[in-house]
Each structure stands twice: as C-alpha cells, then as structure tokens.
Amino acid sequence: MALRKLVAGNWKMHGLSSDLGEVRAIAEGSRRYPTVDVALCLPAILIERAARAVPGFAIGAQDVHEAEQGAYTGCTSARQLLDAGASLTIVGHSERREGQYESNSQIKAKAEAALSCGLGVILCVGESLAVRETGRAVSTVEAQLDASLPDGFAEGLSVAYEPIWAIGTGKVPGVDDIAEMHAALRARLEAAYGDAGQSVRILYGGSVKASNAAEIFSVAHVDGALVGGASLKASDFLPIVAAAAAS
Ligand code: 13P
C-alpha cells in the first residue's frame, strides 16, 4: 500500500527569530506539492511564533515530557506544545537517547502522552555503527521499536529509521539495507497493531539531501524522510519535498 509521504525537517538546536523567513519560504513552497505532507520540527522557543507565521502549515516539536504537568524543570508537556500551535512532535531521537539517556520505556510513555493529547508523533529508532558492523542492526532496531511503540495507538504515529552513523555524516546506507530495515519495521508494526500497522508511515532519516532523496523514496516502505541539516534552508529542503511528490 502506497502511503502519502511525510517530509519532516528537524531543525535541532538551530534557528533564531531571524530564521522565521525560512519557515515562511518552506511553508509557501510546500504548497506546490499538495500530495506530500510537510512539517518542520523546531526548537520549542520558536514554535509559537512559527505557528502564527504560517497558519495551516504543520509545526512540530523535537521532544515532549511524558507527564501531563508538574515539577519537571525545563521540560514541556504535550498540552503546552499544542497550546503553542504544534501539531506533532519527535520522540526518541538518538541525540536524546544518547545525550539525555532516554530509555525505550520513557520514549514509549512520551509517545503515549503526545498521541493521547492529539499530537502526531515521529518515533525514532536506529542503530550505532558498532551494531551495524556486527550484523545485528535489524534485530537491534526491531527490539528498540517493540520496546518504544505506544500501546494501542497507531493513528497519528510515524516511525523514523535513523541509523546513528548516517546522521550528519553524509553517509547513507545502501538501498538494500534501507529496504531490509523498513520491511522489518513494517512487519513489527503489523504485529503490534494488526492492519492499522500498514498505515503507519516509516520515514528514513540520516544525511537525506536533494541529491539522494529520489533514490531513497524509491525504496519500498519508505514513506517519507526526517531531514536535519538540509531542512534549514528552503533552497535545500524544497527539492526533497519535490522528490517525494515525484516518487
Ligand atoms: P541529518 O539530515 O543532518 O543527517 O540529520 C538527520 C536527523 O537526525 C534528523 O532527525
């Protein structure tokens, strides 16, 4: 089943108010590709201003806390993100799994908190280079997905396969490796959610650029992309959206 593609940008800790013009340019440029869903996951501090600047365009967060509210200094709840104008959030990015020591069970709780509030979720999984080199990439990522998938929720959920060694390095797995991983993740989603697992989009992330996007989008079960560096400028990002529209 061919799913409508989602191309989401992850600005990570980049962007100031002076960059809202790029958000506007991306939102306006994306209108030329109505068959593709496009979103930008921004630093929390920019979400409200971006959402006001581009009404109707999907602005997302990069993380969410699992609790509804409470004494969690520095954290942001799903309701706060919605209130600021976000419609989705990333959870479980490897930069948080590694840098903030987030566990699968915490990521699962974050995904459940976001989905139950009505926020879409992009749940990230991916293996390290050491795991890839020992030939255990598929079983490792399958186990990571099984342990971080929200219970009982498929609507609003997307999964992003992001090999850690491909993030920000210019390295991309071969199309056969992407195909093998995405087929394995599709099977795990169907095992978890039954037929509803067929409609969960599986994005690829890691050094996606205009020059490799068409080839990546041609792989079975690649239902979009999560883009870091190449999402910061409309001139880099819109050709990736165009490649999704043409795929
Ligand atoms: P790059 O596209 O910069 O490799 O980043 C990928 C990523 O981590 C998106 O979440």
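^ 1,3-dihydroxyacetonephosphate complex. The pocket of 1,3-dihydroxyacetonephosphate is lined by residues 10, 93, 162, 167-168, 205-208, 226-230 (CB under 6 Å). The CA atoms of residues 95 and 164 lie 9 Å apart.
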